[in-house]
């Protein structure tokens, strides 16, 4: 019922990100390195800008590249450098190269870079320039790493030893096109020859491996990095692993991992506890979730919004609404503000218990307290009202949703259509179908199959005298 | 239980899905109505439904009933009045049955 697990799930990557700052190694990277840490985004933004007609003075072409032909690119470069009065800086050159590399081959991009250096002696490629090419070479779905090596060699020959930024860019680019195996291979190779990955890169790769590989593969990678390069998993790594095993409902392994992280001298933090609690909640094991909460309190870890949201979601899901309400109270008392997720979880629980009207009352209460409901809240309520045979209220709610342009979810759409048909309001059901299609809530096929099978069911029900 | 069932029907039963979206060579009556020689069952339903809406064919006293015009009659078994609830099954008649 509802989409709450997803919104809860989204809390995990966020927490992983939030965690990073305190874990930044004492030796912070030099400013120049920092600035090229995420060159891709900046450059693409820049490239975007160069494509737009800009204010007079900064002369630029509208569409930067029309063809992947090398000769055209060279001509364009010449026309730009001969007509521009403003001095061209590294940023311009980088974005020029980036724009070309994104539509052309690696070999042509390298040639263009050589050509640019030759044509404009004032331009010296920087590390970031090579990183552009590196990122592109990782993004092609080739079966070998040879284009990547080609760029790395080019870098080394020009005096840029691959560093942690290089490793990071290569790994992220490779993983973005599903080349996790290549990323692992490259990380090992670079660790051996040039630079070890930093904790962010390492954890990023672990997370990617968790998503698409067997657990044993992930463990092998971690063991190998530990034994060969002395890179040890940190608390974030363990959180990622625990999240992964919890998602695959393997809570025994999660408990084992908590034991290991304690052995390694880490103290489980709020994020670890939240992750484990989520694991129990998804399995509707409310008692264990409360155990985790108590354990947190014992260990002096202060529960946060996510903790309470998870707990309230889990308790609602396992039908323990009264307790869920109790925790809402505790949460408010401890100075936290319940959000749409909190209220939606609770509404979900109340609807499950058959108290759809109570859930509707909660909607008013949350709005009173300045918390705006989201489309998930409305879908949960619509579903609950229709299940609770409160169709009129459901229709009212639907009209509000329609006015706000909110999307219908599969479950609430189906329940609503069915409730309408049951009451003999087939034309209204057709109208809801139209809205579902129009608002792109569901694929046409899914929306239609639901309508068709509901009408089929209606026919049977009518024959048996069960419906109007 | 219905959403689950539908989900299952769409994901576990590609044949049922194909039956909805595959283009089918149309019999002459239907060909005249839709103005093309091939259409999917879903596409055909959408056409008929939007035809009903644009021509205001729903009975003003009972929206659940469609008063067929001549054109619509020709593809819906010549019925003067059709219940919206039976529309999908009437359209289905023009399409080959799915092999069991």
From TrEMBL, chain A:
UniProt KW keywords: Repeat
Region annotation (Disordered) ranges: 1-39
Annotated Pfam families: PPR_1, PPR_2
PPR repeats: 198-228, 234-268, 269-303, 304-338, 339-373, 374-408, 409-443
Keyword Repeat: yes
Entries under NCBIfam families matching the protein: PPR
Record protein name field: Pentacotripeptide-repeat region of PRORP domain-containing protein
Lineage, top ranks: Eukaryota, Viridiplantae, Streptophyta, Embryophyta, Tracheophyta
TrEMBL record, chain B:
Residue ranges of the TM segments: none
PROSITE patterns the record matches: SWIB_MDM2
One Pfam short name: SWIB
A single GO cellular-component term on record: nucleus
Gene3D superfamilies (alphabetical): SWIB/MDM2 domain (1.10.245.10)
Ranges of residues in domain DM2: 19-97
InterPro entries: SWIB_domain, SWIB_MDM2_dom_sf, SWIB_MDM2_domain
UniProt xrefs under PANTHER family: SWI/SNF-RELATED MATRIX-ASSOCIATED ACTIN-DEPENDENT REGULATOR OF CHROMATIN SUBFAMILY D (PTHR13844)
Name this protein carries in UniProt: DM2 domain-containing protein
């Amino acid at each position: 019922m509802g989409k709450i697990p997803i919104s809860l799930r989204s809390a995990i990557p966020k927490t992983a990100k939030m965690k990073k700052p305190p874990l930044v190694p004492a030796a912070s990277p030099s400013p120049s390195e920092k600035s090229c840490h995420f060159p891709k985004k900046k450059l693409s933004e820049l490239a975007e800008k160069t494509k737009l007609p800009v204010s007079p003075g900064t002369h630029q072409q509208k569409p930067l590249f029309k063809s992947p032909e090398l000769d055209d690119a060279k001509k364009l470069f010449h026309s730009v450098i001969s007509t521009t009065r403003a001095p061209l800086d590294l940023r311009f050159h980088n974005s020029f190269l980036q724009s070309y590399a994104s539509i052309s081959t690696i070999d042509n991009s390298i040639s263009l870079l050589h050509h640019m250096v030759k044509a404009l002696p004032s331009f010296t490629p920087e590390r970031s320039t090579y990183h552009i090419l590196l990122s592109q070479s990782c993004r092609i779905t080739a079966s070998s790493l040879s284009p990547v090596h080609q760029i790395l060699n080019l870098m080394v020959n020009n005096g840029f030893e691959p560093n942690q930024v290089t490793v990071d860019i290569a790994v992220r680019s490779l993983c973005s096109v599903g080349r996790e195996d290549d990323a692992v291979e490259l990380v090992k190779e670079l660790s051996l020859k040039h630079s070890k990955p930093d904790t962010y890169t390492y954890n990023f790769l672990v997370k990617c491996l968790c998503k698409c590989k067997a657990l044993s593969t992930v463990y092998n990678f971690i063991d190998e990095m530990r034994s060969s390069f002395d890179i040890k998993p940190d608390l974030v790594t363990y959180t990622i692993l625990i999240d992964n095993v919890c998602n695959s409902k393997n809570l025994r392994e999660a408990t084992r991992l908590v034991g290991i992280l304690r052995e390694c001298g880490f103290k489980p933090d709020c994020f670890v506890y939240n992750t484990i609690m989520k694991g129990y909640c998804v399995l509707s094991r409310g008692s264990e979730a409360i155990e985790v909460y108590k354990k947190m309190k014992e260990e002096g870890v202060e529960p946060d919004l996510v903790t309470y949201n998870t707990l309230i979601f889990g308790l609602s899901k396992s039908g323990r609404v009264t307790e869920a309400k109790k925790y809402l109270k505790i949460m408010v008392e401890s100075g936290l503000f319940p959000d749409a997720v909190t209220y939606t979880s609770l509404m979900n629980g109340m609807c499950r218990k058959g108290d759809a009207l109570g859930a509707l009352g909660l909607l008013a209460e949350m709005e009173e307290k300045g918390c705006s409901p989201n489309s998930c809240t409305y879908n949960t309520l619509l579903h609950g009202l229709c299940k609770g045979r409160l169709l009129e209220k459901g229709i009212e709610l639907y009209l509000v949703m329609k006015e706000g342009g909110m999307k219908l979810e599969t479950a609430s759409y189906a329940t609503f259509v069915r409730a309408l048909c049951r009451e003999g309001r087939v034309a209204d059901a057709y109208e809801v179908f139209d809205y579902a299609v129009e608002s792109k809530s569901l694929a046409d096929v899914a929306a239609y199959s639901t309508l068709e099978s509901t009408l089929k069911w209606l026919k049977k029900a009518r024959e048996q005298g069960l419906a109007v | 239980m219905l959403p689950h069932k539908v989900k299952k029907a769409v994901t576990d039963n590609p044949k049922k899905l194909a039956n909805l979206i595959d283009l089918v060579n149309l019999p002459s009556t239907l060909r005249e109505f839709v103005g093309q020689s091939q259409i999917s069952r879903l596409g055909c339903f959408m056409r008929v439904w939007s035809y009903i809406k644009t021509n205001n064919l729903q009975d003003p006293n009972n929206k659940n009933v469609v008063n067929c015009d001549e054109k619509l009659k020709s593809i819906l078994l010549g019925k003067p009045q059709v219940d919206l609830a039976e529309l999908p099954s009437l359209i289905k008649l023009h399409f080959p049955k799915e092999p069991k």
